[in-house]
Design brief:
It contains 3 helices and 8 strands. The protein is α+β, with helices and mostly antiparallel strands.
């Protein structure tokens, strides 16, 4: 079965101590730590759809890169329990603000993780690699 396309935001920030962090949310069904993600949206670029998911799932606002920094494969659990393969295009998002109320605030948990902890918290090895590679490139650029 050909993977279905999804878009995801990789929300990040630089702490006052100079360390990079990623914001993760729990999935609604399995409560695993994931990045905000969802299906492409008609009339929106993939990056804009990823930014919308970050707002809906975590209340995050910020600058989302226009180009994806990678993609990873995972099995999305559908109603009824069957898993559908999905390929997620990942767009980094520099978080500027978190609003006080957002659509899914009572359906998920969310928090900031140091880079290495975030990479360990997610189940998808491809996503872990993207996180570690992105933070290494940011460290070099800083």
């Amino acid at each position: 079965m050909k993977p279905r396309k999804q878009v995801g935001a990789l929300p990040y920030r630089l702490t006052e101590a100079g360390a990079w962090e990623f914001y993760l949310v729990t999935s609604r069904e399995t409560r695993r730590w994931v990045i905000p993600k969802g299906w492409p949206m008609k009339g929106r670029s993939a990056a804009a759809a990823a930014a919308q998911e970050a707002f809906e799932e975590a209340g995050l606002r910020g600058q989302t890169a226009r180009k994806a920094i990678g993609h990873y494969l995972y099995g999305k659990r559908m109603p009824g329990g069957r898993a559908v393969p999905c390929m997620v295009e990942v767009f980094p998002m520099e978080v500027e603000d978190q609003v006080r109320k957002w659509p899914e605030m009572h359906q998920r948990e969310g928090r900031w993780f140091p880079v290495e902890e975030a990479a360990e918290a997610v189940d998808e090895p491809g996503l872990s690699e993207i996180m570690l590679g992105f933070s290494a490139s940011k460290a070099v650029a800083a």
